[in-house]
Amino acid sequence: MVSAQNVIVLGAGATIPAGDYANYAKLGFLAHGGADFGVAPNVSVGAHGFFGSNSHDTDGDKTNLHGGVATVGYMIATSGSIMPQIWGGAGYLVHSYKSESFPAFEGSASSLAALIGAGLGFPLGSVTGMVNGYMLMGFGDNDETRYFAIDFGVGIPFGGAM
């Protein structure tokens, strides 16, 4: 998710519900996209949007999660083909509940959110491949919405490098 250069980031993977959210939500999917901008050697800032969905234990019920986060990242090593990286961020989360069985209970909640993660970047031709793991936590109306994510993505360079 981070780089010492400017990159467009695209990725997808699995969400693993945690905490109270895990009491009813199942393994789901997540897709995200955004941009990271190198602001200093090994340091980047970025903006990312995401969409995901988790089905529930009750057939026909699901939660859609979407929002955006601003991130700050640090690349731990820049030499070699594997580039470890860490990042954190804050943003906005919308938790939208849908139900075929109980449509009267459908609704959504919006709140601030925080993200913390780590990953590995590796050369993949003219782009950078990425394997990431992170946790997203909602606050306020979404304080029970938490999940771990494991995803794969690519970083497509643009502009100049830092």
Structure description:
With 162 residues, the chain is an all-beta fold. It has a single domain, classed as Beta Barrel (Porin), CATH 2.40.160. Helices cover 0% and strands 75% of the residues. The protein is built from no helices and 8 strands. It has an 8-stranded antiparallel β-barrel. β5 and β6 form a beta hairpin. The chain starts with a strand and ends with a strand.
Give the helices and strands as they follow along the chain: EEEEEEEE
* Distance, first to last CA: 16 Å
SS-based class: mainly beta
Overall pLDDT confidence: 91
Q: From the alpha-carbon coordinates, what is the Rg to the nearest angstrom?
A: 17 Å
Report strand %: over 45%
Identify the notable features of this structure and list them briefly.
162 residues; mainly beta; Porin; 8 strands
Question: How would you briefly describe this protein structure?
Answer:
The protein is an all-beta fold. It has no helices and eight strands.
